[in-house]
Design brief:
The complex is a heterodimer of chains A (about 900) and B (about 110). Chain A has about 900 residues and is an alpha+beta fold. Chain A is about 50% helix and about 15% strand. The radius of gyration of chain A is 34 Å and the shape is globular. Classes of the chains: A alpha+beta (about 900), B mainly alpha (about 110). At the A-B interface, α2 and α3 of A face α2 and α3 of B.
């Protein structure tokens, strides 16, 4: 047991560097002692208290080093009730400006809060399991093939014989069709689990009992445990208190319901039913050779007593794996233990969280800077008042604290609105995603989020209120303000730096938003399929066990099943074309390693490609034509036919480097120790975008579809495709009554969940983009015009001395252009850096900055030039004597 | 100005080190004080006190060899130096001198 990583990081930060390691070690030792003596919860509370103690000391040490005049400004002075009242009165006096600032800040704080909330769940998830931080998944890597699936023998050995880990269990995810009462069967994500270890990590059942070892014995009555939401679902059991003992049909086999687990539990990720996993020798013997068990993907988890036992546990599991191996001469296999969540999310959480956080922080920073600009303009008007107060003896810290309080009024209101809006948005989203999210993601907004909101409010107040106030109350400027008789105070060169910084941040945020928008638009756009709205698609799932033991490789049974389905669907009135395939555009189906035969005696090269098995006529139905060679036909799919394939254009570019694919040979990665056959490429077709946005897949390859237990059927019609739905159900039922018919939709609707996500993301980006754009334009205009306005007197003198309008304008614009140029260059550099950071995102963002960057830069530059030009022209139009008298 | 007596915390920590002998590192020091007088001092206080006493030359510390258990972490063991012992004696004498003859205190403790 270890303390939370965040608290430990805070503690280490507070410790003096020369004592960091040993004090940290002492505290961990004591934490573990306390965990053993009292409870892990008490130990965690104790650790947090100690960390806060060290933090207090650290703050005290830093404060002790500060100059006395700064130390005097304790929080009470920075936020007095009187100042807050004055701030509220001032805000009420300028309603439009205040409302704009509040709404802008509220949007930014709300978005930042959502970003932090999302990032927190992704980057620092904690398993809600006792000992979750000591839970690992076992992985096996092979020297050649990379990560491979553990064999059932290995899993059996680990579960039965490993002694170093505290507990070892195994699970296998599956999606069986379940049938409740007379409803049509539908798929639910479930898991087969080893009963004992599962019961030890799962929470107490709401109803009934856990699975037991006896449930997994051969010949035992099939039983199932359900998740709360299945029990509560109105179309399932509607919370029936007598659910225990009733039967549930899973893949056609009746299972007795023996328990209900709470919704907070979705092990292994977001699963909703659990049945016992039999790992005994009897189960294995029944499935060998080449049977069901051997081809399954059974995963193993271990719980360690202490993280320090990682090495001995790995060594023990490696030794057991070696003992379990049948092919001792095969390639070297390495066992590793990966923290459970990292293994489940493939380690994608942290980089995504960092990108999200960086993006939202950039937005918040940009907005705060912009609001700060508006406040600066307001401060400039009050510079005389501040100067007089300063001259009468008000310390600068007092003036700053007042400005801070004033802007805190605005940001506190904004933080409240932003937080309430974020909570409301979450309330709308959560019911839709709750069951599909990994069970360790805590979706509720907690105390830490509210503290974040409060900190954001203080941060924004500091940026928006104190920064401008610091500038206005600088001693030199106060003196200037006192000498000048009214008008804006001189704000110095710092205004230029501020203008450049603001421009840089705005350009970067806007450009990257535009880049992401452009990328998302490509994912949500249409595919290359001709008249895709005329194509009906449906997913057909046959019970895999119906093929019998070893039947996954039974080509004849598959072929017969496929041709029967094709004939039945083709007979539906109105069906013009019918074809089957293992995947569809935008479905992100199977992908796998492909080996390309080398022509130069060198080692063959390996590539990861989208593997699509297509029945006769599928490519034609999609509107594909052969760019080279030919398409696949019915003869290619016959058992025993010559092995051929067709590849897509991107495959040729990515894998073959643009060389002609015809006649080249590829083969799939080895599986189950058998040598795969070489397949000849006979044709080239356009990409069907089977996996848009994928970072790993390099092109598509289409093999002939012999048949499979899970198939997509596509039917093209000249009429209304939805009208074919009853006919499809009837035709499929005629072939076999137990086939599960789901996901019936037209082709444009395929993958709508992913596209809805992208569309939602695009909407947020568009709103944020428009907001930042408007604010930036206003901010740049305000700063640039302020800088020119304060030169009105100088312009008057120059005109009085005989300077031409052109030369005055040139001087004014030259300075603005310099500031704009610096800002734009900084913005471009920042935008390129952020665009590069998008490689951390799980989807590849197509497009470049080539279009977005110049457009954004031009808009900003125009705003800046206009902001300098207009006041300069106005100043030139004023009579020089008048200008001199006024300023 | 050189120290003439020990502060309360310093006194407690120094006595705990003496009591623990060769096994005086952060964890048992804190536990010894808690066990004997029922004060669960914050660890920050204890480590800051230890560091301060080291700076005064009252105690010294050295790292142990990395241990097999506990993830191979080494511990920092503390030892009281002669000036520390001397100051402890002097502090006790000072407290005793101040105590003597105070009837109110004698009564309350009897």
């Amino acid at each position: 047991m270890n303390p939370s990583r965040i608290w430990r990081a805070v503690l280490r930060f507070c410790l003096p560097s020369e004592r960091r390691d040993d004090i940290d070690a002492d505290l961990i030792e004591e934490f573990q002692l306390r965990g053993a003596e009292a409870s892990p919860r008490a130990a965690r509370r104790w650790y947090r208290r100690q960390t806060l103690g060290f933090l207090t000391h650290r703050v005290g040490r830093v404060a002790g080093d500060l100059p006395a005049n700064i130390r005097r400004c304790h929080p009470g002075r920075w936020l007095s009730v009187t100042d807050l009242k004055v701030g509220a009165r001032l805000a009420a006096r300028q309603p439009m400006a205040s409302i704009t600032s509040i709404l802008t800040l509220a949007t930014a704080i709300g978005l930042a809060l959502l970003g932090f909330w999302l990032a927190r769940g992704l980057a620092w998830p904690e398993l809600p399991i006792e000992g979750g931080d000591r839970m690992y998944q076992v992985r096996i890597h092979e020297a050649e093939a990379g990560r491979v699936v553990a064999s059932p023998e290995e899993v059996m050995m680990w579960v039965a014989d490993a002694h170093v880990p505290e507990d070892v269990g195994a699970f296998e995810a599956f999606t069986p069709p379940i049938q409740i009462a007379d409803e049509a069967p539908r798929p639910i994500e479930g898991a087969r689990v080893t009963p004992g270890p599962f019961a030890r990590i799962a929470p107490a059942p709401l109803l009934g009992r856990h699975l037991t070892e006896a449930d997994a014995l051969p010949g035992a009555q099939p039983v199932v445990v359900l998740r709360e939401y299945v029990w509560q679902h109105p179309r399932a059991y509607a919370g029936d208190p007598d659910i225990l003992g009733s039967d549930l049909s899973i893949a056609g086999v009746p299972h007795t319901i023996v328990g209900v687990l709470p919704d907070a539990w979705g092990f292994p990720t977001s699963h909703s039913l659990w049945v016992p996993l039999s790992l005994g020798q009897a189960a294995l013997d029944a499935a060998v050779p080449d049977g069901e068990l051997r081809t399954r993907n059974i995963r193993t988890w271990v719980v360690l007593e202490d993280p320090t036992e990682l090495v001995p546990a790995t060594q023990e599991l490696s030794a057991l794996a070696l003992g379990a191996r049948v092919d001792r001469e095969g390639p070297d296999r390495t066992v590793t233990l990966v923290p459970y969540i990292e293994a489940a999310t493939e380690g994608a959480g942290t980089p995504v969280a960092l990108v999200i956080t960086a993006f939202f922080v950039a937005i918040l920073g940009g907005v705060a800077l912009n609001v700060s600009t508006l406040v600066l303009a307001r401060c400039a008007q009050r510079s005389e008042e501040l100067a007089v107060r300063s001259a009468l003896g008000a310390p600068r810290a007092r003036l700053l604290s007042q400005m801070f309080s004033e802007s805190f009024v605005l940001s506190a209101i904004a933080a409240t609105i932003g937080t309430l809006a974020a909570v409301r948005v979450l309330g709308l989203i959560i019911p839709f995603v709750d069951q599909d999210m990994p069970f360790w993601m805590n979706l509720s907004m907690g105390r830490s989020d509210l503290i974040t909101a409060a900190l954001l409010a203080v941060l924004v107040s500091s940026v928006a209120g104190v920064l401008p106030a610091l500038r206005v109350t600088a001693r030199r400027r106060v003196a200037n303000a006192l000498q000048s008789k009214g008008g804006a105070a001189s704000l110095g060169r710092g205004t230029g730096a501020m203008l450049s910084t603001q421009l840089a941040v705005s350009v970067a945020v806007l450009t990257v938003s535009a880049l992401l928008l452009e990328g998302f638009a490509q994912f949500t756009g249409e595919t290359v399929v001709t008249e895709e709205e005329k194509v009906l698609t449906v997913l057909l799932r046959r019970d895999p066990l119906r093929f019998g033991p070893g039947a996954r490789g039974d080509a004849l049974a598959h072929h017969q099943y496929r041709t029967e389905i094709e004939s039945a669907l083709a007979a539906i009135p109105g069906a013009d074309q019918v074809a089957l395939a293992s995947s569809l555009p935008r479905v992100h189906g199977d992908m796998g390693p492909l080996e390309l035969e080398s022509t130069q005696e060198a080692d063959p090269t390996r590539h990861l490609a989208q593997l699509v098995r297509v029945g006769p006529g599928f490519l034609e139905l999609m509107g594909s034509t052969a760019l080279q060679g030919r398409l696949l036909d019915a003869d290619d799919a016959r058992p025993g036919a010559r092995r051929v394939a067709v590849v897509s254009e991107s495959f040729v570019v990515e894998v073959l480097g643009g060389r002609s694919p015809l006649g080249r040979r590829v083969r799939l990665g080895a599986s189950n120790g058998s040598e795969p056959e070489w397949v000849e490429i006979v044709g080239l077709v356009p990409d069907l975008e089977m996996a848009p946005g994928s970072r790993t897949v390099r092109g598509e390859i289409y093999f002939p579809l012999v048949g499979d237990w899970m198939l997509y059927a596509t039917i093209r019609t000249s009429g209304d495709p939805v009208a074919l739905a009853p006919g499809v159900r009837h035709a499929v039922a005629e072939v076999e009554s137990n086939i599960l018919v789901t996901d019936m939709q037209t082709l444009p609707d395929v993958g709508w969940e992913i596209r809805a996500g992208f569309q939602g993301g695009s909407a947020v980006l568009a709103v944020v983009g428009v907001l930042v754009l408007l604010l930036s334009l206003a901010g740049v205009y305000a700063l640039a015009s302020l800088a020119v306005t304060r030169r009105t007197r100088e312009i008057g003198i120059r005109v009085a001395l005989g300077a031409s309008s052109r030369s005055v304008l040139r001087t004014v614009l030259r300075q603005t252009a310099l500031q704009l140029g610096t800002g734009l260059m900084g913005g471009a550099a920042l935008a390129f850096a952020l665009a590069r950071a998008t490689v951390l995102l799980p989807v590849a963002i197509p497009g470049s900055l080539a279009l977005a960057l110049p457009v954004v830069a031009l808009l900003m530059a125009l705003a800046g030039v206009a902001a300098a030009w207009i006041p300069a022209r106005r100043a030139l139009a004023v009579d020089p004597m008048e200008a001199l008298r006024t300023h | 100005m050189p120290k003439t007596t020990l502060g309360e915390l310093e006194f407690l920590v120094l006595l705990a080190i003496l009591r623990l002998g060769d096994s005086a590192y952060g964890v048992p020091i804190a536990r010894e004080i808690d066990r004997r007088i029922g004060r669960d001092l914050s660890r920050a206080t204890i480590y800051v006190t230890l560091q301060r006493m080291e700076e005064y030359g009252l105690v010294c510390s050295e790292m142990s060899e990395p241990r097999d258990a506990g993830g191979g972490r080494a511990r920092r063991y503390y030892r009281v130096l002669d000036p520390g012992l001397e100051l402890a004696r002097r502090s006790k004498a000072a407290y005793s001198t101040m105590w003597e003859g105070l009837a109110a205190l004698e009564e309350s403790t009897s």
